[in-house]
Design a protein that fits this description.
It is a single chain. The protein is α+β, with helices and mostly antiparallel strands. The protein is 19% helix and 42% strand. The chain is built from 2 helices and 5 strands; from the N terminus they run E-H-E-E-E-H-E. Strands 4-3-2-1-5 form a 5-stranded antiparallel sheet. Strand 2 and strand 3 form a beta hairpin.
């Protein structure tokens, strides 16, 4: 149920580029739909799509 605006994507590697390619760009509004227990993935809604991200992937996204 948490939401916010992307401020920055950390890193300059394949993962950070891939996140940007699928829509995780600064200024975009995101909404966490659900969080799996025991450190499992997060379901995040962005630009009308729902995307599952591992927690280490989601940690690259700075949100305000």
């Amino acid at each position: 149920g948490m939401s916010g605006t992307i401020k920055e994507i950390l890193g300059v590697d394949d993962l950070s580029l891939r996140l940007q390619e699928i829509g995780f760009v600064p200024g975009s509004l995101i909404n966490v739909i659900s969080r799996a227990p025991f450190g499992g993935p997060l379901a995040i809604q962005i630009k009308g799509s729902t995307i599952a991200l591992r927690r280490n992937e989601a940690a690259r996204i700075l949100v305000a």
